[in-house]
C-alpha cells in the first residue's frame, strides 16, 4: 500500500468512464495511472484527454504494481469475470454492478434433492426440494 496518492486503473473506456475520469482526475489523493479497454483506440483517447500516463489491455493494467484500485466499467456480461480477474491479481475492485447480468443456472445441489413444482408459478416449473423420508423411516420422537 502506498503512502501517497492511491493508484487507480480503469477497465472500460466507454461513456460512463468520462463521468468517473472527470471527477477522479481532480483529487490530489488519487492518481489515475492506466485505462484498459478491448477497444485500444477508446482507451488511448480517454488517456490522452485526461492526462493518464498509460493505456492498453487488462493484462497490462493488472501488471502495474502501483495500481491499487481498479474501476470496473465493463459491460454487464463481462463484469463478474473481470472483477474476479482483478481480485485474483491482488487488487481492490470498484464495481457499480453488484449482481450478474442474469441469474445463475439452477443446479442440483445434492443427491438428496428432487424436483417439485413451484407453487408460485402459473405453470408447474421444476424446482428443487429436499427429499423427506417416509414416516416409517423417521426416528421416533423423544
Task: Compute the average pLDDT.
Answer: 80
The strand count comes to: 7
Taking the sheet with the most strands, its summary is: 5 strands, parallel
CATH H-level superfamily title of the domain at 6-95: NAD(P)-binding Rossmann-like Domain
Structural class: alpha/beta
| Residue windows where pLDDT falls under 50 for at least 5 positions | 114-134
In DSSP terms (H or I, runs of 4 or more residues), the helix count works out at 4
Percent of residues in beta strands? 15-25%
The strands making up the biggest β-sheet line up spatially as 3-2-1-4-5
Please identify, by name, the CATH architecture of the domain at 6-95: 3-Layer(aba) Sandwich
CATH-assigned fold name of the domain at 6-95: Rossmann fold
Please give the radius of gyration in angstroms: 24 Å
CATH class (first level) name of the domain at 6-95: Alpha Beta
Order of helices and strands: EHEHEHEHEEE
Shape: globular
Question: Can you describe what's shown?
Answer:
The longest helix has 13 residues, at about 75-90. Helix content is about 25%, strand content about 25%. The relative contact order is 0.14. The chain has a five-stranded parallel sheet, with helices on both faces. A two-stranded antiparallel sheet has the order 6-7. The protein has a domain at about 5-95: 3-Layer(aba) Sandwich (Rossmann fold). By secondary structure, the chain is of the alpha/beta class. The chain is globular. The chain has helices at about 15-25, 40-50, 60, 75-90, and strands at about 5-10, 30-35, 55, 70, 90-95, 115, 125-130.
